[in-house]
Each structure stands twice: as structure tokens, then as C-alpha cells.
Design a protein that fits this description.
Elements (H helix, E strand, L loop, with lengths): L1 E5 L3 H13 L2 E5 L12 E3 L6 H10 L2 E4 L6 H7 L4 E2 L3 H8 L1 H10 L7 E4 L2 H11 L3 E5 L9 E4 L4 H9 L4 E5 L5 E9 L5 E3 L3 E6 L2 E7 L4 H17 L4 E10 L2 E8 L9 H4 L4 H9 L12 E8 L4 H4 L5 E4 L9 E9 L2 H19 L1
Parallel strand pairs: 1-2, 1-4, 2-3, 4-5
Antiparallel strand pairs: 6-9, 7-8, 7-9, 10-11, 10-12, 10-14, 12-13, 13-16, 14-15, 16-18, 17-18
Helix pairs in contact: 1-10, 4-5
The chain binds adenosine monophosphate.
Length: 362
């Protein structure tokens, strides 16, 4: 079996490690110089939409998948008649445009924050009138890790927001005073079998994920999130792993966004689940039975951003993942996972680890 993976970043690398365990070969398409997944298979160093490279993947692979959201949808359309491509292009299309994504949530009855489309400066004024302050203005396309976003706290910010990101297609979104953020990750195979992971509680700073912990002691929220993810997987006739990010407001969940791929908030599943999200993604696209998503303890994950300080490697009984990327401010270079018997032990260690690596990385 040979899988083609568009993108050879850390997600491709972790997919590659799982593939090796399953006896599956990976080949990647990525133009970058020394991508992390080069450790796991050959890399065709061509642009993501290079016709000859895509044809090569289609001709030599049993199935093609992708590891990041900004793969041009046309690249998938180009090969989908020649080789199985999972997740489906329609899922990618919805996730690439915040408006299409929100309209999908609406169609599926998944609650979401109030929003307005912004095409002109006057639309921001109207959105502030309709939604109240604060509002966050986001580019509809190509935003990630909080990039392409501007929070308007009072009306004098409107000009600044327009100067900063005006001109691109935008949406204005109500600022949600959430209690905390969660994600729910699910996988579906070609036959339609579904497996859902326990909720993950995620903390972002500056728009970037810092820590995740799972499971979360909130059974009603977990049931609701599972229902939303199942609805999405079925509606999209989805194959692979999908992550839905949600804001928790009391007993309510509001959908923020979804990712049609393995997700940073599920990295804990490598050691913290009977079957990792990476393995279940591969099982799903190979149409094998999915593995159990049961937790094997209380898992915590802290991202290593901008640098990997010595302290990160010197704490016993933790799992350090170094993606082999060169350091750059704001860049995700690795993560650490820890598993403990109780949530309180996990939280205590995770919080101190987070403080230590953050202080040492800046
Ligand atoms: P996003 O790229 O849209 O996922 O945004 C990154 C992070 O910014 C989210 O995980 C939240 O922590 C925060 N954020 C984004 N949109 C909102 C919102 N409407 N209300 C409150 N926080 C938000």
C-alpha cells in the first residue's frame, strides 16, 4: 500500500510515523526545502498544484490525502477521477472559506456566533450595529493561528481594522465571551464507520494553540459535540479525520471552525488514546476498521513554539516530539505530551510545563 500526502509538515510526519507502524509507504508533495516529513518518505519537491507531480501521485499511490488546509481545491479535482482522494474536496472547499464554513454549520443546525459578511468599510459599521462590541474581523480565506484577524473593541478601531485587512473578502464575527474552548475530533472510513475522540480542552494565546487536555469532565457537552461531528461527517460523506473547534458558553457550544485533517488539538492521542488520530486517519482512508478512541489516562499536551528550551527535554515521564524544524518566532517546532492517572496531577504538571517552556522560549 502506498499513500500520497499533499504537504510534508509535522502533520505529514506524524501520519508517516503511523503509516510505518501499519506497513504503509508514504510519498509526499511539498515544495519546501527540508520538510519534517522527509524523515518518513520520498518528497516530490514541486508546488502543491503542479500537474505533473499530481499525476505522478495519482499513478503511483493507492489513495491520496492532504495534511493542511490551503491545498488548492483544484489540485484535488485534477486527480480525483484517477485515484481515491480523501477527505473529499467539498470538505476542503468549505473549510477554506469562513463564509462557506459558517453557512454549512447553519445548514446542519450547528449553533455558531453571530456574523456578517464584510465587503466594504460600511459593512463593518453595520456589523458593529447588529452584533454589538467587541467584534472580530477575519479574512475569509488563508487565515490560520489567529492570522488575518482584527478585534474591534470600540468604534475608533474600525478604520484601523479596515487599513489592516480591508480589501480582502472578510467576515465580522461577534466576540464570544466563552468559558473555555474545546475540540471534538472524529474519523469516518469509506464504509461509513465512525469513531469519535473524547473532548479536548484547548487554550490559545495570541490565536495559537498552547495546550490541550483530554478527556474533559463535561458529559453533556461531549455528547452534543459528538452529535455535531457525526452530522458533519455524514453530511460531507467524509472519509478521514476531522476536527471541530467549539466555544463553550455555559451548557451551550458554538462552532468556531473545522479542519478537514488531523489536528494539533489531537496530538495527545498518540500516547493518550488506544488509537491515535493519525492512525485512525490512515485506517479511514484505507477503509480499514477504525481503532478504539478510548483514553488511556489523563493526557496533556503543550506546544513548543518558537524554540525548544532545554527544560522541555529534561522532565521525566513525558513524551517529547521534535519536528526537526528550524526555530522561528511563532513557529510550532514540537510538542510534549504527558499522561497521568488523574486530571489534577495532569493539570498541575501541564500548567507548570507550559509556564516553563513559555518563559524559556521568549
Ligand atoms: P480562529 O483562527 O478563528 O480559530 O481563531 C483563533 C483563536 O482566536 C480562537 O481559538 C479563539 O481563542 C480566538 N477567537 C477567534 N474568534 C473568536 C470569537 N469570535 N470570540 C472569541 N474568541 C475568538
Amino acid at each position: 500500500m502506498r499513500i500520497g500526502i499533499i504537504g510534508a509538515g509535522q502533520l505529514g510526519q506524524m501520519l508517516g510515523f503511523s503509516a510505518r507502524d501499519l506497513g504503509v509507504e508514504c510519498v509526499y508533495l511539498d515544495p519546501s526545502d527540508q520538510p519534517p516529513a522527509a524523515a518518513c518518505g520520498d518528497v516530490i519537491r514541486r508546488p502543491f498544484d503542479d500537474p505533473a507531480a499530481l499525476a505522478e501521485l495519482a499513478a503511483t499511490c493507492d489513495v491520496v490525502t492532504f495534511e493542511f488546509e490551503n491545498v488548492p481545491v483544484e489540485a484535488l479535482h485534477r486527480i480525483e477521477n484517477d485515484v481515491a482522494v480523501y477527505p473529499p474536496a467539498s470538505a476542503l472547499q468549505h473549510s477554506q472559506d469562513r463564509l462557506a464554513e459558517k453557512q454549512l454549520f447553519e445548514r446542519l443546525g450547528i449553533p455558531l456566533p453571530g456574523y456578517r459578511v464584510v465587503d466594504a468599510r460600511a459593512d463593518i459599521e453595520a456589523a458593529v450595529d447588529a452584533l454589538g462590541l467587541p467584534v472580530v474581523i477575519k479574512t475569509r480565506r488563508l487565515g490560520y493561528d489567529g492570522k488575518g484577524q482584527f478585534v474591534i473593541r470600540d468604534r475608533t478601531d474600525i478604520d484601523k481594522a479596515w487599513q489592516a485587512i480591508g480589501g480582502s473578502a472578510l467576515i465580522a464575527e461577534q466576540w464570544v465571551p466563552f468559558d473555555y474552548e474545546v475540540s471534538c475530533i472524529g474519523a469516518r472510513n469509506v464504509d461509513g464507520e465512525i469513531a469519535i475522540y473524547p473532548l479536548s480542552h484547548n487554550v490559545h494565546e495570541g490565536g495559537i494553540l498552547r495546550t490541550s487536555r483530554s478527556p474533559v469532565d463535561a458529559p453533556v457537552l461531549a455528547d452534543t459535540a459528538e452529535r455535531y461531528v457525526r452530522t458533519m461527517l455524514e453530511h460531507l460523506d467524509y472519509v478521514g479525520t476531522l476536527a471541530l473547534e467549539l466555544f463553550v458558553c455555559g451548557e451551550k457550544l458554538l462552532a468556531n471552525e473545522f479542519a478537514p485533517r488531523v489536528h494539533n488539538s489531537g496530538h495527545w492521542s498518540i500516547e493518550g488514546s488506544k488509537t491515535s488520530q493519525f492512525e485512525n486517519h490512515l485506517r479511514a482512508i484505507l477503509n480499514r476498521p477504525l481503532g478504539s478512541t478510548d483514553s488511556v489516562g489523563h493526557a496533556g499536551m503543550v506546544n513548543l513554539i518558537g524554540g525548544i528550551p532545554a527544560v522541555a527535554r529534561n522532565i521525566g515521564d513525558t513524551y517529547v516530539h521534535d519536528y526537526g524544524k528550524s526555530p522561528r518566532p511563532g513557529r510550532k517546532l514540537g510538542h510534549i505530551t504527558l499522561i497521568r492517572d488523574t486530571a489534577s496531577e495532569r493539570d498541575e504538571l501541564l500548567d507548570s510545563l507550559h509556564r516553563n517552556v513559555t518563559q524559556s522560549s521568549v
